[in-house]
Amino acid sequence: MAQKLNVRRKYLKDQTTQKISFSPSTRELNTIEEEKKIVVLTGASRGIGHATVKEFSAAGWRVLTCSRQPFDKRCPWPGGQENHIQVDLADPQSTLAAAEKIKIKLNGKLHALINNAGVSPKASNGSRMNTLETDLDLWQTVFQSNFFAPMLLAKSLKNELAAAKGAIVNVTSIAGSRVHPFAGAAYSTSKAALATLTREMAYDFGPYGVRVNAIAPGEVETDILSEGTDQIVAGLPLRRIGQPSEVASAIYFLCSLNSSYVTGAEISINGGQHV
To answer: Which residues are catalytic?
Structure first.
């Protein structure tokens, strides 16, 4: 009788344990949702970058910002000063040094890297610079900032991104797929190259559980709109200019679990400008 009771107790104990346990996938998802997520964002000082910081901060993420300038105390998000890294993305050594500084601020995990910073040089009269007018030094500066820096940051932070099963979002442009009346040749080709790099990175980072995507904004309302933008907007299917917050929302989607099976994609956010 005692032996039967012991067997019965063991059975009940096993059943109780089974009822309160979680499957590995559920436990993993709960852990991901509960921990404080961290995103690294380049080019956060204005426009799309500024809106992206606010989007992620509102969702409870810790945002590490990177830019050439020191942190601007007027930026309305918490912890900005200690979460800011000053870096010149046109300088490979500065970029690599910034990656090491970022690692120090992480707890071994990085949930998202957003490569938003970019340079688009203009001629002295404000017009676009074509292939005949752009000298080699300027080509190299643009490509270092817009193409090589995103690759260097992603490579340097690969282990931290893999530990969090994180995401990378590269900000390309409508100018990467067509000749744009305002964007110069160096900028446009660097963004086209970044779109291709996104697919290559998606293939390479995928086995580590890291997703890599891109967003390609069109005409977005910022403080530095080029003269004549209203004429482009008038011909868009949606007949309006985009808002930085609309781009930021798409970036957030690509860094969230809602896009957990999306990688290697480039999403056009341009009111139908690409059609």
So the answer is: 187
Q: pTM for this one?
A: 0.83
* Chain position carrying tokens 């110069």: 184
User: CA Rg, the chain, in Å?
Assistant: 23
Summarize pLDDT for 59-74 with one digit per residue, the tens.
999 999 999 887 777 6
Domains, the chain, with CATH or none = 37-269 (3.40.50.720)
Q: What is the four-CA torsion angle of 240, 244, 248, 250, rounded to 10 degrees?
A: 10
Q: State the chain's maximal CA–CA distance in angstroms.
A: 98
pLDDT, one tens digit per residue, over 137-159 is 999 999 999 999 999 999 999 99
